[in-house]
Each structure stands twice: as structure tokens, then as C-alpha cells.
């Protein structure tokens, strides 16, 4: 096979970045909810460093990163998955029991959520849904491995 017939390698999911209305408030929220550590230096926007910056949060156990971005021209509208852009982000957990633990964790933090939802349509999975301070929908997700 030639290189154009085979998809290049992927190693996993690295990060997601969201534009937020208040970088400091959002960083504090994500640090509290996900227990992530903030990378000390802000990151300028690639190709347009004068437009704003990003703050990066890192989970050292998994390597997952969350970028929270300030844009100079942001009008502060809340996120809405019904418009073009990000619909939601889902974080995988090893077992359904972990979803119950997350529901308890969010309860302890006073964060509203859907409770654990189980479905078989169109395939079996379970999800816990909640929102960040800018209304970005987040999910904690479990699906048994096929087979």
C-alpha cells in the first residue's frame, strides 16, 4: 500500500479547547471539577497572537488537556449546541459505576446534572450530562467494549 491508501496513525485524544467569557473563572471551575493543573504560562493564539490567549489545564494521569480561550472580540454569548461549533465533549470512564461516582462528585460541588442515563438506542451506553459556566455541554460517558 502507498501512503495515500493508509490513514496516518493516531495515538488518542489530546485536548479540546473552548472559547470562554471569563478565562480565570472557567479555569477555576475546570480545576475544581476535573482536578486538573494549570500550565503556568498562557498560550498565544496560533497565527494571531494579538487576538487573545489560551490557558491550558492538564491531567497528569491521562495526559488529557483542556484549553480555555480568551478572544479579544468575544461578546460573551453563552455556548449553544444548536449553532455551528462544538456540540459537546464526552469524557470516557472505565465502568458504569464510575458514572455514579461522578454524579455524587458533581452533587458535592453543587453542579446540576442529568443523573446517569442508560440507553440501548441505537446501542447500549450510559452518560451523565452537565454544563460548564459558559453552557458548554459536557458528558461523562461509559460504553462496554464490543464483544
UniProtKB/TrEMBL annotation:
The keyword Oxidoreductase applies. InterPro entries: Fosfomycin_Res_Enzymes (IPR051332), Glyas_Bleomycin-R_OHBP_Dase (IPR029068), Glyas_Fos-R_dOase_dom (IPR004360), VOC_core (IPR037523). Keywords: Dioxygenase, Metal-binding, Oxidoreductase. It holds the Pfam family Glyoxalase. The keyword Metal-binding applies. Transmembrane segments: none annotated. One of its GO terms (molecular function) is dioxygenase activity. Residues 12-143 form the VOC domain. This is Glyoxalase/bleomycin resistance protein/dioxygenase superfamily protein. It comes from Actinomycetospora cinnamomea.
